[in-house]
Amino acid sequence: MNFKAVSFVLGKIFMIVGILIALPVAVAIYYSEAQIVPFIVPSAIMLVLGLILTVKKPQKMQIYTREGLVICGIAWIIMSAFGALPLFISGSIPNYIDAFFEACSGFSTTGATVLTEIESLPKSILFWRSFMHWIGGMGILSFMIAILPKGEGHSMYVMKAEVPGPKAGKVVSKIQNSARILYLIYVFLTVVEAFVLFAFAKIRFYDAVTTALSTAGTGGFSVLNNSILGYSSAKVEWIIIVFMFLFGTNFNLYYLMLVRKFKLVLRDEEFWIYLLMNIGAIALITVNIMPIYGNLGDSVRNAAFNVNAIMSTTGFCTVDYETWNTFSRCILLGLMFVGGCVGSTGGGIKVTRIALYFKQTLAQIRKTLRPRSVTKIRMNKNVVDEQIVNGVNTYLVAFSVILIASTLLISINGFDFSTTLSSVISCLNNVGPGFERVGPTGNYSDFSILSKLVFCFDMLAGRLELFPILILFNPNTYKK
After folding, report:
1. For residue 390, which of 340, 437, 356, 344 has the smallest C-alpha distance?
2. Which of 87, 240, 347, 473 could form an SS bridge with 99, CB 3.0 to 4.6 Å?
3. In this structure, what are the phi and psi dihedrals at residue 61, rounded to the nearest 5 degrees?
């Protein structure tokens, strides 16, 4: 382990986070709020720590897989710990563990909350909640790589630890340029959504910006108590539906469209599976809830909104789907596991992994019927490397172990089975809402301190694809 290189990179991350934490001060000043100190204090601490860690650049800056994973895991934990301070110092969330839960939920783009009253909070605090989603959506390490004038060490190993999916890819030859391109696309889509919500849906500029930030990060924090339902606008809902779908799509496809490689986009298997699953779920739920709403238009809109909110793991709410039939709720539960595409800001297991599991099953069936046959698993007409297949299988095992262990720990609260299981599934897949107590009209405030800490672990582990967090608990990680 190259401790000096790890400390140096963490120092740079701390300085970036320190600057980002200070940005909501502009919102506080604009709205004449007194909430300045809650942002200045953690910002100053992060900047000082960053300066201390970067005062001397190490001679050896070699960063490989192990260092990349450790940097990623520690950075996200520290970022959440300091990101909770504005919520705590301002008194918006008086209990620090609750504030830490809210920050973990924000940065991991989960959207689970302990707050019961939102609209009375200062606008700067509400902006920070949505801004945390936006920061966490593409990742702070990817942001660092994108803005630094020159990549330090092996940037690929740092970005690989943070980018969701079985394989961290590059849209161009240099990883730094890839990060910049993806961030420009991210910023562009965010600005477009904010503009459309403000100009065409006619909601307040502040609401348009915060909603766009939350949608882009596929997080789900809203500035209204009733979430998106509070706008009482079908136009707002349809705009958000479109952008939830877009942010759940692999961003590499947008770059391919920009360079006019449309054939590569059209033959992308993951996108077609994502699209067909989305449409199929909407169709099935629409038919199932028609008797509840009485007309096709409302049924389609409500089905489309909740399918995309769950599948993209955004977690916005417009209706209480607890009133829906078991069939529709089971579909939503399944979509919680699937999540968005690789290279998107969505959570979940990811569509590519689900596709690979299905293809492995078919390959094993063919192998059983014809033992001497050679079976190869392909995605986009390319043979999938065996190392990737093994990594996907290892991910499923680790995911299952964490799911079971977390569920057992959460069950100590004595809540009903649906609440217990769905809360863990929701946090581990970065969805936000679950069922019963943690459904669209509920929250996580009633859980014990232990449970909230378990949820924090699940949210960060789920956002970082498990291993950057798990590796921190392995003593061999820190050996030279």
Report:
1. 356
2. 87
3. -110, 25
